[in-house]
Design a protein that fits this description.
Layout: H1 2-24, E1 27-30, E2 35-38, E3 41-43, E4 46-49, H2 60-69, E5 74-78, H3 81-84, H4 99-109, E6 112-116, H5 147-164, E7 175-179, H6 192-206, E8 211-217, H7 220-226, E9 232-236, H8 243-253, E10 260-265, H9 281-293, E11 297-301, E12 315-316, E13 320-321, H10 340-350, E14 370-373, E15 375-379, H11 384-387, E16 393-395, E17 410-416, E18 421-429, E19 434-435, E20 437-442, E21 445-451, E22 457-462, E23 467-473, E24 489-490, E25 494-496, E26 499-500, E27 504-508, H12 511-516, E28 535-541, E29 554-557, E30 564-568, E31 571-576, E32 586-588, E33 599-605, E34 617-621
Parallel strand pairs: 4-5, 4-11, 5-6, 6-7, 7-8, 8-9, 9-10, 10-11
Antiparallel strand pairs: 1-2, 2-3, 12-13, 14-34, 15-28, 16-27, 17-23, 17-27, 18-22, 18-25, 19-24, 20-21, 20-23, 25-26, 28-33, 29-32, 29-34, 30-31, 30-33
Helix pairs in contact: 2-4, 5-6, 9-10
C-alpha cells in the first residue's frame, strides 16, 4: 500500500509538473508595459522574412540556420493559398509545399514564427496568393464580404488553420502570432465586415490565446482602413523613414502595446525592363539601429528573397511583371549566400542581444559546368497534339484562361483570316485586351508580338482562309492594389482592319507535364522557315560522379537567346528574358541536378534563338547576373503605397 501511495503521489507530482510547464508557454500583449510577454517575461523579437514557397525544401535548414546565427529570434513567412490549392478542393501539402514540416524545422533550429496566413498576402506572388480559379465568377469582388469570395476563404481556412493550431506557441509549437489579411488599408474596399469575418474565423479555428494582428503602411489612411478591434495593428516602413513619426502612426491605432515594424525593407523588388534594385547597407543598418533603440520589434523584409520558380511571380500596376529572381538585395542572396549586408546587420543586432555561438553555415559553393549545346526539337504548333492533350475548345469569341481553367503558362488561340491581307493590315486588341503577351503567326509565318500596355496593334499579311495563331503567355497576375482580379488570355475581342474576329479554336497547353514525361524531347520534322516560331530545344550534360562535392549550385545563362521558359530534369526553373533584363541568369539549386544520370534541359524559346546564325548553347556559370544595364529610361518609384 505504501508503495502504491508513493507511486500515486509521484504521478500527481509529474502531472502537476507537466501542467505547470504547459501553462508557462504563453505569448501575449502587455498593454501597460508596451511589450510582448513570452512565458510571462517581457520579450522583443528581431525577425526576418523567408518564404518557404521560394526556397527549395532541400535548402530550408541551411537558410534557417543562417538566419538564426545572424541573431534573429523569429521568422515571418507567408502562406500563399494558390501554392496549396491550385485546383478547387485539391490540396498540396507535400514536398516543397509541406508547410508543417517547414514550421517544425524552424522550431528545431530555435526560431519562433510569425505566420502571415492570408488569405491575401501580396508578396510579389501571383495574384497576391489568391487562387486564379476564384475568377471563374467574373463578377466576384475579391477581399470583400462578397459571399462567393467569403465562402471560398472559409473553405480554405477550415483546411489551413487546423493544420496550424498544433504548432502555435501555447500548444508547444513555434508560432507566436498570426497575421490576418495583409496591408488591407491599401485596398480600395475598406470593408470592415470582411475583416471582422476573418477575425471570427481565425478565432474559431485557433482559439482565443493566439495573438492576431494586421500590417499596414505607415500612413494614417492605411491604418484606418486596415485594422479593426480585436486585431493588433502593426505598421511597415523602410530605411530612411522618420522612425518616431512612423511609430506615431501605429500609436494612433494602438495607444499602448509593443511597437512593431512588420516589414522593414532590406532591399526592394525588381520588374522586367527596369534597373535592378539595390538599397545601400549603410541606410539599412542606420534605420535598423534606430528601430531597435526605440525598443521596437522588427521584421526584416526580406532576409532571404529566394526565387519565383515556374510561373509564380506577380506583377504591379500599371502592368509590370516581376522577374524569376526574388533576390531583393537581401542579407542572404537568392542562392543563400552570406553578404556584407548580412554581417552588418548581425553587428547591429549584437548591440541589443546575445548572438548564438558557433560557426555560421558557409555560402554554398557554385560550379560553372560550362556550355551545353542545344538542338531544335519541334515548334510549339507542331507539338499541339502533345501539349493540348485534352483537345481544343470552340468559341465564337475568345475565352479567358480562367474560363477554360488554364491558370498558368500558355494558351493558343486560332482562327482564320476572313479577308485577303496582301498589304499590311492592322490586327488590334480592343481595350488593351491581350493579357499579357501574344506571339502572332499567320500560316506559321511570324508576324509580331502584341503586349499588354505596350503594343496593342501590329500589321499582318496573309491570304483569306489562312490560319491566324496567337500564342498567349500569362506573365504573372497583379499582386497589389485593386486590379488583382487579373484575367489572363484574350480578355476582349480582336479586330482585323476594324472587323471583330470570331470562330476561335482555343488550345489550353499543359507544357509542364509534357516536359516531365519527355514528350517534347523527341525530334519532329518541321520547316526550316519556322525557326523563329516558338520552338522547343533540348540539350543534356553529365556531371562526373568521381568529383567530390558535385553537384553544386549553378546559374544558367542564355547567350543570344531572347525570351522563354526553361526546365532542367523536368523542374520548371522559370522565365528568362535577357533581351529586356535586368535578370540575365537563372538560379539552379543543386538538388535538381544529378550525377547518376544525364541532366536533361528543355528550353521553349518564344521569339529568336542564336541557333540559326551563331552558337546554339546555354551556359552554366558560377556567378549570377541580376543587374544588366537597361537600355531604356524608366521612372522608378520605391514607395509601393502610392
Amino acid at each position: 500500500m505504501l508503495l502504491l501511495a508513493c507511486v500515486f503521489i509521484l504521478l500527481n507530482v509529474l502531472r502537476v509538473g507537466v501542467c505547470t510547464e504547459a501553462a508557462a508557454r504563453t505569448f501575449e500583449i502587455d498593454y501597460e508595459q508596451n511589450c510582448f510577454r513570452k512565458n510571462g517575461v517581457p520579450f522583443r523579437y528581431i525577425s526576418g522574412s523567408i518564404h518557404y514557397s521560394r526556397v527549395p525544401r532541400f535548402y530550408w535548414k541551411d537558410r534557417l540556420l543562417k538566419m538564426r546565427m545572424a541573431g534573429l529570434d523569429a521568422i515571418y513567412t507567408y502562406v500563399p493559398w494558390n501554392f496549396h490549392e491550385q485546383t478547387p478542393g485539391l490540396y498540396n501539402f507535400s514536398g516543397d509545399h509541406d508547410i508543417e514540416s517547414f514550421l517544425q524545422l524552424a522550431n528545431d533550429v530555435g526560431l519562433l514564427v510569425i505566420l502571415r496566413a492570408g488569405p491575401y498576402i501580396c508578396g510579389e506572388w501571383d495574384m497576391g496568393g489568391l487562387p486564379a480559379w476564384l475568377l471563374a465568377k467574373t463578377s466576384i469582388v475579391l477581399r470583400t464580404s462578397d459571399p462567393d469570395y467569403v465562402q471560398a476563404v472559409d473553405n480554405w481556412m477550415s483546411v489551413l488553420l487546423p493544420k496550424i493550431k498544433p504548432l502555435v506557441y501555447q500548444n508547444g509549437g513555434p508560432i507566436i502570432s498570426v497575421q490576418v489579411e495583409n496591408e488591407y488599408g491599401s485596398y480600395f474596399a475598406c470593408d470592415y465586415n470582411y475583416l471582422r469575418h476573418l477575425l471570427k474565423r481565425f478565432r474559431q479555428h485557433l482559439g482565443d490565446e493566439v495573438v492576431l494582428f494586421t500590417t499596414d503602411g505607415s500612413g494614417l489612411p492605411y491604418v484606418k482602413c486596415g485594422s479593426v478591434q480585436g486585431l493588433y495593428t502593426t505598421i511597415d516602413f523602410g530605411p530612411g523613414t522618420n522612425v518616431t513619426a512612423a511609430f506615431q502612426v501605429q500609436r494612433s491605432s494602438e495607444p499602448k502595446g509593443p511597437l512593431v515594424n512588420s516589414e522593414f525593407y532590406t532591399g526592394w523588388l525588381d520588374h522586367w525592363g527596369e534597373p535592378h534594385s539595390v538599397v545601400a547597407t549603410e541606410r539599412v543598418v542606420r534605420t535598423l539601429d534606430e528601430i531597435l533603440a526605440h525598443g521596437a520589434n522588427v521584421n526584416m523584409y526580406m532576409f532571404i528573397g529566394g526565387t519565383n520558380f515556374g510561373y509564380w511571380n506577380g506583377a504591379n500596376t500599371p502592368y509590370e511583371p516581376q522577374p524569376t529572381s526574388y533576390d531583393y538585395d537581401a542579407p542572404l542572396s537568392e542562392a543563400g549566400d552570406l553578404t556584407d549586408k548580412y554581417f552588418a546587420i548581425r553587428d547591429v543586432i549584437k548591440k541589443y542581444k546575445q548572438i548564438p555561438e558557433g560557426p555560421i553555415p558557409p555560402t554554398t559553393p557554385k560550379f560553372a559546368y560550362g556550355e551545353v549545346y542545344m538542338e531544335k526539337v519541334t515548334t510549339l504548333v507542331d507539338a499541339l497534339n502533345i501539349l493540348a492533350k485534352y483537345g481544343a475548345i470552340k468559341s465564337l469569341y475568345p475565352l479567358t484562361f480562367d474560363q477554360i481553367k488554364q491558370y498558368f503558362g500558355f494558351t493558343l488561340y486560332r482562327t482564320v483570316l476572313p479577308q485577303n491581307c496582301g498589304y499590311p493590315t492592322s490586327l488590334s486588341t480592343i481595350l488593351n485586351g491581350v493579357h499579357d503577351r501574344a506571339y502572332v503567326t499567320v500560316d506559321k509565318v511570324p508576324q509580331g508580338v502584341l503586349e499588354r500596355n505596350k503594343q496593342i496593334s501590329i500589321n499582318i499579311t496573309g491570304i483569306k482562309g489562312a490560319e491566324l495563331d496567337l500564342l498567349v503567355e500569362s506573365m504573372g497576375r497583379v499582386n497589389f492594389g485593386r486590379f488583382n482580379n487579373d484575367f489572363k488570355g484574350l480578355i476582349t475581342n480582336l479586330t482585323l482592319n476594324g472587323t471583330i474576329l470570331g470562330n476561335w479554336t482555343i488550345y489550353p497547353l499543359d507544357i509542364d507535364n509534357a516536359v516531365i514525361n519527355g514528350l517534347v524531347s523527341k525530334k519532329h520534322d518541321f520547316q526550316l522557315s519556322s525557326y523563329s516560331l516558338p520552338t522547343f530545344f533540348k540539350g543534356s550534360f553529365f556531371i562526373p560522379s568521381g568529383i567530390p562535392d558535385l553537384p553544386q549550385d549553378t546559374f544558367v545563362k542564355f547567350p543570344g537567346w531572347t525570351k522563354g521558359q526553361i526546365w532542367i530534369n523536368g523542374f520548371n526553373l522559370g522565365r528568362y528574358w535577357p533581351a529586356r533584363g535586368p535578370q540575365v541568369t537563372l538560379y539552379v539549386p543543386r538538388h535538381i541536378l544529378t550525377t547518376s544520370a544525364v541532366n536533361n534541359i528543355t528550353v521553349l524559346e518564344l521569339e529568336n534563338s542564336p541557333c540559326n546564325t551563331g552558337k546554339c548553347v546555354v551556359e552554366f556559370v558560377d556567378k549570377p547576373i541580376l543587374d544588366q544595364k537597361i537600355k531604356h529610361e524608366f521612372e522608378f518609384n520605391k514607395n509601393k503605397f502610392h
